[in-house]
Specification:
About 30% of the residues lie in helices and about 30% in strands. It is α+β, with helices and mostly antiparallel strands. It has one domain (about 5-175): Nucleoside Triphosphate Pyrophosphohydrolase. Strands 3, 4, 5, 6, 7, 8 and 9 form a 7-stranded mixed beta sheet that branches. Strands 1-2 form a two-stranded antiparallel ribbon. Helix 1 packs antiparallel against helix 2.
């Protein structure tokens, strides 16, 4: 169960399982290249790429719940049908994760299964169609858009990543045990 940590600027902050925030990093490989689902949102008044995740809420019972709730919120609740499967994956399969100890953040790497690939690949398209006229229809949705982008493209555009995103990209490469990719950019879906 989430516990109160501090109040700052009129907002309460919580932690659960020793973490203050969590997220997911959906990814897949195609032609030996890694593609990551990211969102674009405003950070420090600039539009930045960001990984799916966010802060613990008072109602969160575990960091797994935080990670999936935040990922779902930032995807415009479009991964609702996958939540039970993803929750089981986090609990029982124990996918690889990235911890950032200083900020008490954890992000789970979700390797997209073939059976779910169509839903995942179509998320950016669905998101755009649903939220194209009003990206703030959902109160918790800060995403401007979703995008599948190659790890190489993220590396090339570090200035377009949030601070946390820059840290995650370096740790992600280590976790996936890969060196810099040599070519290509966006996956057209």
């Amino acid at each position: 169960m989430a516990t109160f940590v501090k109040k700052q600027g009129g907002k309460n902050y919580y932690q659960v399982d020793g973490y203050r925030a969590g997220g997911i990093i959906p990814y897949f490989t195609h032609n030996k290249k890694y593609y990551i689902l990211v969102n674009k949102e405003f950070r420090a008044k600039k539009l930045k790429y960001h990984f799916l995740g966010g802060k613990v809420d008072l109602k969160d019972k575990s960091i797994h719940e935080t990670a999936l709730r935040e990922g779902n919120e930032e995807c415009g609740f479009l991964i609702n049908p996958l939540l039970p499967k993803l929750y089981r994956k986090l609990l029982f399969d124990k996918p690889p994760f990235i911890k950032i100890t200083k900020s008490k953040y954890i992000s789970y790497l979700i390797n997209i299964e073939d059976s779910d690939i169509n839903l995942w690949l179509n998320l950016p398209i669905l998101f755009k169609r649903i939220f194209k006229n009003d990206s703030y229809v959902l109160k918790h949705n800060e995403s401007i858009n979703l995008q599948w982008i190659s790890l190489l493209e993220l590396e090339k555009n570090l200035e377009q990543l949030s601070y946390l995103g820059k840290i995650l990209i370096l740790k992600l490469k280590q976790r996936l045990n890969i060196a810099s990719e040599t070519e290509d950019t966006f996956l057209d879906v």
